[in-house]
Amino acid sequence: MGYLAVTELKKTKALGAQLESEREIIVTRDGKPMAIMIGVDGETVESSLREIRRALFSAAVGRIRERAIENPPDLAVVESAIDAARRSRTR
Question: Strand ranges (DSSP E) for the chain?
């Protein structure tokens, strides 16, 4: 996996060659990561995008679970919110 400054994105031939050889590139701005580029072919672009979204969702759920373990929610607040939601549906 290589790194590429955002200002280098205009060099499309070099970018294409780098993606072809490395498959993933971290795009940086001011030396800090800001995006990930991956190489795909036309036939698998939709499935690749679905897999990326699935992985990002799974990572987000994992982070939420870790935070919940470190700082558990107040069960009384949770129950109150559930009760309020149920009452609003029956009206």
Answer: 2-5, 24-29, 32-38
d(CA 30, CA 66): 31
Domain 1-39 has CATH 3.40.1620: yes
Edge-first strand order for the sheet with 32-38 is: 2-5, 24-29, 32-38
Question: pLDDT tens digits for 47-91?
Answer: 999 999 999 999 999 999 999 999 998 999 999 999 999 999 876
Given 3-state DSSP classes, what are the helix, strand and coil percentages for the chain, each rounded to the nearest 5?
A: 65, 20, 20
* Each residue's pLDDT tens digit, 21-58: 898 999 999 999 999 999 888 888 999 999 999 999 99
Domain ranges of the chain: 1-39, 41-91
Structure tokens at 43: 């036939």
Cα 91 from Cα 87, distance rounded (Å): 7
